[in-house]
Amino acid sequence: MTPRNVDTIFFDLDNTLWWFDRNSAVSLRNTFERYDLGRLVGFEEFYQVYERNNSALWELYSHGLTDKDHLILERFRRTLQMLGHKGDLTALSGEMNRFYLNDLAQQPYLIDGARELLETLYDRGYCLCILSNGFAGIQQGKLASGGIDHLITHVVLSDDCGITKPLPGIYEYAQRVTGTEPEQIVMVGDSYNTDIVGAHNAGWATIFYNPDGRTPQGVADAMVTRLSQITPMFS
Ligand SMILES: [Mg+2]
User: How far is the CA of 16 from the centre of ligand 1 (A)?
Assistant: First the structure.
């Protein structure tokens, strides 16, 4: 990749910098124990059913086909229903979701190399920003728990503009917030459809963080399997 007049780097947060999968597994286990779900199923089964429901709902959410309030409640409600939980599932799901999100925002694990990458790029004078479909309040907590909040200048969230990646409006919104033009920006993210295609269509350069290497590079300007491979791309 040849950076153009790049001075601003947008990072996706979950599973690009902040190790969502690991942190979420810890918080789901804490939630499972807090609500004593072991009387219904083992943790592994709970985890798998929740993950399937959550992924399906996020897919709808990222295409603007459902809203946040429905997503955060429904992922737990469906899971409890499938596992045969009786009673007022809507009230319980709301409570479980609040517990889970609060616990999640306190988990500290980062993707390998994330801190070193951010520190190096920060020292080299780049403006480092977040572009995330995650929720306001929670995403800032994750940056703080990961100890990287002081390296980030702008946190741009779909929650703040009402438009999710990969819809075009969120990239224009991010440019307005940061006062930048497409030629100045590189987007780094782990989701080909959500992070790379949308940013590419907005005229941004893109780096696809693809740790398992299973998805083709497609329209991405560069592809890496480790974050440390990004450091030499920026002088
Ligand atoms: Mg991600």
Answer: 5
Residues 138 and 208 in one domain: yes
As given in the structure block, the two tokens for residue 209 are: 């963080």
Q: Dihedral (C-alpha) 194, 196, 197, 200: value to the nearest 10 degrees?
A: 140
Domain boundary among the residues 48, 77, 104 is at 104
What pLDDT tens digit does each residue of the chain (235 aa) get?
545 799 999 999 999 999 999 999 999 999 999 999 999 999 999 999 999 999 999 889 888 899 989 999 999 999 999 999 999 999 999 999 999 999 999 999 999 999 999 999 999 999 999 999 988 989 999 999 999 999 999 999 999 999 999 999 999 999 999 999 999 999 999 999 999 999 999 999 999 999 999 999 999 999 999 999 999 999 9
Domain stops at, among 79, 104, 129: 104
**CA 87 / ligand 1 centre spacing (Å):** 34
Q: Which two tokens stand for residue 42?
A: 């083992």
Structural domain span for residue 143:
8-18+111-233
Considering the domain architecture, whether residues 203 and 154 belong to the same structural domain is answered as yes
Residue 80 alpha carbon to ligand 1 centre in Å: 26
How many angstroms from the chain centroid is the CA of residue 228? 19
Q: Indicate yes or no: pTM above 0.70.
A: yes
- Estimate to the nearest angstrom the gap between the alpha carbon of 26 and the chain centroid: 16
